[in-house]
Design goal:
Radius of gyration: 21 Å
Helix content: 40-55%
Strand order of the largest sheet: 1-2-4-3-5-6-7-8
Distance between the termini: 80 Å
């Protein structure tokens, strides 16, 4: 019996040593935003004050554009996800993009509120401060849900709507359960959240990004750097847990009230929000058009900006 207990104690001690080694190897404390700005907030980045937050924003293109294009990113992403679209559009149109509260360089808000309703108020505050009255609104994933919820709330101000693999329908209503990126699965586990405030293995970030691409080979080391650095921004890991708690189901009944031109883009290889939800958006939004990119994943605008923005330019009459 003594030999058994000695062996058990040795096994437990070995596990503790391995855990300590792993913790040290993956130690990743929060990074102050000032440390991240030199790499990720180069011009034309600017910061504007909204509700006490320093909001990271890029505002490009002709200022006399009567209908600026506002781009909203998804969970754990940043304004950088739209770089391909912005490059293709800013020569002819004013393009506005920003980091949502809780993510990237903007970081957490004081209310710890990352509900869609709070994001609608935030988007409204941004366009108000920029003096934009009417605009085209495009969003991906959570950003897509924020976009259509804003259009429902401000029908006289949103002139056109572009939804890219948008959320809003109950994930439980899907015929096939969604495949959550590893980082999202961890963020949904309260028992692991304390640990994840101090560690962030690069492999977890890479696996999470590869999960949302139709072709994972397109995920570059620099892209992994971007997503990892945006996660390390002070306060963002706590905010992600809160965002996951608040869910992704929206008041989809409001979709039937929309009476604006709407383009719906979807990646046929989206494992997070399946194509059937894109088809639901097409049914619920009168007169909308659904375009599917069979080989792309959950972030088709980022994975293949040239092909996806070409459809958008046609939609906008460019």
């Amino acid at each position: 019996m003594r030999l058994f207990f000695r062996s058990l104690l040795f096994f437990i001690a070995a596990l503790l040593v391995l855990a300590a080694v792993a913790l040290v190897a993956t130690w990743a404390p929060d990074q102050p935003v000032e440390a991240l700005k030199p790499r990720w907030a180069q011009p034309p980045s600017q910061f504007i004050t909204i509700d006490g937050m320093q909001v990271h924003l890029r505002d490009e293109g002709p200022r006399d554009d009567p209908l600026p294009i506002v781009l909203i990113h998804g969970t754990s992403a940043s304004l950088h996800t739209w770089e391909g679209w912005a490059a293709a559009l800013r020569g002819q149109r004013r393009v506005i993009r920003f980091d949502l509260p809780g993510f990237a360089l903007t970081g957490p808000n004081r209310q710890n509120d990352y509900s869609v309703e709070a994001y609608v108020r935030f988007v409204t505050a941004v366009v108000d401060q920029l003096g934009v009255q009417r605009f085209v609104l495009a969003g991906n994933s959570l950003g897509g849900q924020v976009a259509w919820a804003t259009a429902v709330a401000l029908p006289q101000r949103v002139a056109r709507l572009v939804l890219v693999d948008a959320s809003g329908y109950s994930p439980e209503s899907a015929s096939v359960p969604p495949s959550l990126p590893l980082g999202f699965r961890i963020a949904r586990m309260p028992a692991l959240r304390v640990l994840t405030q101090y560690t962030l293995p690069r492999s977890i970030v890479e696996k999470s990004v590869r999960n949302v691409y139709g072709d994972p080979s397109k995920v570059t080391p620099e892209l992994v750097d971007l997503y990892r650095d945006m996660t390390l921004r002070a306060g963002n890991r706590q905010a992600l847990g809160r965002r996951m708690d608040q869910g992704y189901s929206g008041e989809v009944a409001g979709l039937k009230t929309l009476a604006i031109p709407t383009l719906i883009l979807w990646g046929g290889q989206d494992r997070l929000i399946p194509l059937e939800f894109g088809q639901r958006f097409a049914r619920d939004i009168t007169g909308s058009r659904l375009v599917v990119f069979d080989e792309l994943g959950h972030v088709p605008h980022e994975e293949d900006p040239a092909r996806t923005v070409a459809v958008v330019k046609t939609f906008l009459g460019l």
